User: Fold these one by one.
Assistant:
Number 1:
Amino acid sequence: MFIINCPYCGEREQSEFKAGGEAHIVRPKQPTELSDDQWAEYLFMRKNIKGIQFERWVHTHGCRKWFNVIRDTSNDMIKAVYKMGEKPPTK
Amino acid sequence: MKNKYSLFSLVKNAFSYHENWEKAWKDPEPKKEYDAIIVGGGGHGLATAYYLAKKHDMKNIAVVEKGWIGGGNTGRNTTIIRSNYLWDASAGLYDHALKIWEGLSQELNYNVMFSQRGVMNLAHNLQDVRDLKRRTHANRLNGIDAVYLNTQQVKKFCPIINTSPDIRYPVLGGTLQRRAGTARHDAVAWGYARGADEMGVDIIQNCEVKGIKRNADSVEGIETTKGFIKTKKIGVVAAGHSSVIANMVDLKLPLESKPLQALVSEPVKPIIDTVVMSNAVHAYVSQSDKGELVIGAGTDDYVSYSQKGSHDIVEGTLNAILELYPIFSRMKMLRQWGGIVDICPDASPIISKTSIKGLYFNCGWGTGGFKATPGSGDLFAHTIANDEPHKLNAAFNINRFVSGDLVDEHGAAAVAH
């Protein structure tokens, strides 16, 4: 249980949000041209990192907007929050 | 040869105030090389080592464990054992395990306290009723015992359940697998460790894997906190940390690791003599031999390795428990904890070879791996020894995520495991 700083609403309880998994997985432009291996890679394979992970969250019980979070999955400390479409902060 | 545990040995050791029991397993330093190394000293890993030594005559093997054996999810689960899964592949896998459970204490000469007290799964709406009836039929076709109970039969089997029609999620019926039940989770790890150790397996604790050495197409050994150990076969049974090991060799797995919580109450006199699970309200409860209610909660929906879960998950579970069992309203909870479970997209495990020769993964058991411990170890040992899967775990390969031949047990299983 932790606090997430929604870029639109400010700090809220984590239970107001829903996790959307690993961020920056780009949907293939031409899915029909992918091999089964490439499609499996896109659809199922995850880094599932222990440590700093880039991920998506949605403020389900608030503004209902999606955004990105950089979080240390080993201790749930959030390092940064940034909006969809923005580049992740370099520091 | 270890001394056999028996009534005689108990009496004999009583004369020396139980101070001269021999150690159940040694605590050796790693050798330079093994024929196979199992990464992860939980129930599944120790069972794998045990069956490798017993059935495949591989004695020069080691189990490396970063903490102490059975200190991970083996000691954190709610000890439920059942095999009433919907699909044929799962039914084969889990019932194979259940059959081994039925003779395990005798086989290991270690009392794993396997108790076939039955597992009941509740239905709270019409769709639940249809799903559970379908599953009952599927189970019977696969030779797995299952009966469907109506509300009155549920009440008769477990009288403390609130079957009033005006609760938020009324009990419309349920399924019962009588061969299902519980076991003592620590004893399973200790029993397998003792058995494996007796056959010459080195159980190396406090030894964390830091890297895997490989050449172009096969493995050469593992880097650990106790130095490099050479081997040609590595079986990874690292549960929530499977992806951490896989990332060492740039192997991607379809896993997400999440906290799963459980909690126990203060001990009370016997009040519930079975296991009751409910998928819809996500609560399950049994009573340990010490008298504590053992309650399982759900997973958090975010990836985390922190071994603690969110309070709201526990709160939701206890809300459901209290509605189903108003008699527990004044119980005090003693302990709450989390374990990290690795979940596959189809909620079925992976017991498989990989694209790297000599590297095998047994993972993805998600929230329900304990019940499969003996079967998982047996089949994984077969896969490692023969470099090909047993027919019972052939469907549980990694390639199913490429071929699309998934074993989708999400809603189909009795509960979220």
Number 2:
Amino acid sequence: MFDPSATLQLIVSGLAMGSIYALVALGFILIYNAVGVVNFAQGDFVMFPSYIAVSFVLPSVIVFGTVVHWQLPLIATYLLVLILMAAFGLLFNRIAYYPLRDRGWLPVVISTIGVSIFLRNLAQLIWGSQPIVFPSLFGDASLSAGNLHFRPQDLLILGVAGILIVFQYGLFEWTSLGKQMRATAQDRATAQLLGIRVDRIVAITFIYSVLLGAIAGLLVSPIFTVTKEMGGLISLKAFAASIVGGFGSIPGAIIGGLLIGVVENLGGFYISTAYKDAIAFVILIAVLLIRPSGLFGERVSEKA
Amino acid sequence: MPATRKKFLLASAAASAAGLAFPNVVLGKGEPIRLGLLPPITGAQALLGQQEQEGAKFAVDEINARPGKVFDDRPFELVIEDATSDNQSAVGALNKLLGENVDAVVCPVLSTQIQAMAPVMKGRQEPWMTGGTAVKNTQLGLTNIFRCRASDGITAQAMTGFAVEQLHGKKIAIFHSSEAFGTGGADQVEASLAKFGLKAVAREQYPNGTKDFTAEILRIKQAGADVVVGYIQNPSDVAVILSQYNSLGMKTPLVGSPSVGNQTAIDTAGKNSNGMYCAQDFILGFNSNVATKFVTGFYNRYHHVPDVSTGSGWVYDAIRLLADTYKKIGSIDKTKTALALHQTKHWEGVLGDFTCDAEGNMIHAMSIGRIENGKVSLVKKVVVAA
């Protein structure tokens, strides 16, 4: 039975989750376009900065079994996290990718899996196994109008994700750096011939991808609680989203993420919650059957 | 070389002399009793693993510090293997543990892992101590498994009875995690509801680690439920569920499984857990002297309140019960130990009175508590005959 108020709430929360899937999917796509590999640590780039952030947001946190009091103002914490994660993105590029760049795609993929396992275990070692609550800017308040109830954090996620998507469009379309990133993604050899410092651009792409994950983490932490597994399911759905959108397509990753977020919510409500998670993958299979290159992917024809 | 009468007599004399000179070695006096522990140290359930290890180390240190240790000056020695959070790894960890000559095993708390490990456990004599609450765990054809917590049958009966009789629920919805624990618990709730002539108006499930429960909660709302019975496995999921429950304007009372009253869950959920009900093996301030002593000692050692029922308490009880049983029979013979554990009657543990039934269930009571300002207070106690 159609329920308009429930449908509206499901769409808003679906779009919010979908925005997170989209940000993580963009991280997948940017690294894939730059170096031709899937980064399996992308979900952990959501988790790790969230842990760093709570260490500075809360009055006291247990770090390596010792209570520390590092509290900083929220904005200072966000800036610190972004700076640290940018440095981490560069380190990730130099350690996990750069030494293996000429050995084909498989060693790099294995290397990203290694980084994922390392980050999860490092998080457990530093912060322990207890889930940690990230305080919301809005406290426990919810926005209500009649039968409609929304979390303010969902609306914040939608707003920030929207701004980021516009920023990214501007970056790629109107800046020299963005054009160099696009050129490197399209054809590394030609970009190098044109004088683009490809390794530097790839390193910047890694940093940008890590930052996208970090922003996603900072946005969802207040509604998720911070645990070392928090990025797992997100990255799985984001990966599905990037394939639905057409692997390699930036608009595809965004639309794919939003589509999965909304459809799994509506499907869970109108069909069955037992199949809610399966719905993302049913969409994936359906899209691949009808349009194997994804919704926005380029058709690739093979010559005989 | 053929054995001769002379050689046999010489060997016997040497053995007797060794016995006189080193009686402790021959009788096993002072020799450690190897106790296997299979907590999920890594993976999604690492929190439970941390709590289990804390409970185990606390119990072992306490027993080893007492005069005579377990018995005959024999201390416990913990042998720990990581069961992680999946079934395949748990089976691998168990096989490794069994290769290390352990005398008894404290199994994982996750029912799904116990059920996966059962084929390896079958035919072996080690006493298996567990806190896994799925009813099926003690119906796997193992005669030497002992459950140190109330089963889901008792929990579901207590939760459903409370929802119907105390909260006057007529339209009850079930909300549960989709793995063995949550599904088994939800089945038990349905069976208990049937005894009241009721059928759940909604049964919604989610996989562990889900972050958006809007669809599940709105379906329960749409079904017009007047009470929600929640069978939730992960304490870390509880905070997310309760936060969304409140933010979606749900005023329907929720009666949750023990993880809802888990101290970590309460601390994480904060104000969102106020007014919720939960089934509890243990409620702080309402149990025995053993419990008070445990909670005080634990806090002094670890500087945080223990998660008694789901985490450290049942492990502490399991190890103390084993120690008392070994002491009573003066042996660590596996068959004799299992037999003696089956004869347990009114042994006082942190989680209450331990009396073993034919299946190996030790606890036959469950309390319902109400959460308010970070604490659980007793509302009702349900005792089922052993």
